[in-house]
Amino acid sequence: MLQLRHCGAVVTLLAAALGGCATAPPHKNYGVFRAENPRSILVVPPVNSSVAVDAPDYFLTTISIPLAERGYYVFPVHAVRSVLADDGLSDANLVHAADPKRLGELFGTDAVLYISIERWDAQYVILSTTVTVQLKYLLKSAHTGQTLWDSDRTVVYSPQGSNQGGLAGLIADAVAAAITKAAPNYRPLAEQANTQAIDLKGIGLPAGPYSATYLKDQSDF
Fold this sequence. Notes:
CATH architecture: 3-Layer(aba) Sandwich
Low-confidence stretches: 1-23, 165-183
Number of domains: 1
Number of strands: 8
CATH class: Alpha Beta
Largest sheet: 8 strands, mixed
Distance between the termini: 30 Å
Helix content: 25-40%
Order of helices and strands: EEHHEEHEHHHEEEHH
Oligomer: single chain
Shape: globular
Strand content: 15-25%
Mean pLDDT: 82
CATH topology: Rossmann fold
């Protein structure tokens, strides 16, 4: 079952379908975001705090589409990484520590999106494996360096049991858990986290200028 954790709350997809948490998360303040009115977003390489060394590469394949679908121009992420490396910023920590205005001058972008991968792991416990992806998002103005938006999303996946009784069921569950731990599929979890972070009313990103709902969703944000 996929589970979504936000601000300390744990929400299953079933609960979300039935109306979500009893208390909706408070709306963010979009005053600075509206004043900046960004049209383009530069996604820089993520800082990886997880134990999976390949997590940044996998994650970068999931972030451009939801941002573009929200109505923003997104710089090609792999080209961005190459340009940064040529400019002496091959380490993600150096990029995150750099002045956003420098990145704005280098790429001509309106905003810079920083992502921190907090967890990207699979844990095996008593015949089951739990796969977790936890991400932090921070959008800053490339003109002023101000924070425009932020989010923190966690998505957890635990495969359902085989529903078989006895020894056969235990063996089936053990095999399924071992397969999940040996080759966990993180991409759907990262995509789910991105979609929730970017699209949720009141806490996601307002529609960008290349969206049909641009400036029509202000009651939601």
